[in-house]
Amino acid sequence: MGPATSENHHAPPDMKKSGYDAPEGVEIRGRYDGEFAAILTKDALQFVADLQREFRNRIKYAMECRQEARRRYSEGALPGFDPATRCIREEEWTCAPVPPAVADRKVEITGPVERKMIINALNSGAKVFMADFEDALSPSWENLMRGQVNLKDAVDGTITFHDKVRNRVYKLNNQTAKLFVRPRGWHLPEAHILIDGEPATGCLVDFGLYFYHNYAAFRRIQGAGFGPFFYLPKMENSREAKIWNCVFEKAEKVAGIERGSIRATVLIETLPAVFQMNEILHELRDHSVGLNCGRWDYIFSYVKTFQAHPDRLLPDRVQVGMTQHFTKSYSDLLIWTCHRRGVHAMGGMAAQIPIKDDPEANKEALELVRKDKLREVRAGHDGTWAAHPGLIPACMEVFSDNMGNTPNQIQSMKREDASTITEEDLLQRPRGSRSLEGLRLNTRVGIQYLAAWLTGTGSVPLYNLMEDAATAEISRVQNWQWLKYGVELDGDGLGVRVSNDLFGKVVEEEMARIEREVGKEKFKRGRYKEACKIFARQCTAPTLDDFLTLNAYENIVIHHPMGSSPRL
Question: Which residues are part of the catalytic machinery?
Answer without folding.
Answer: 182, 468
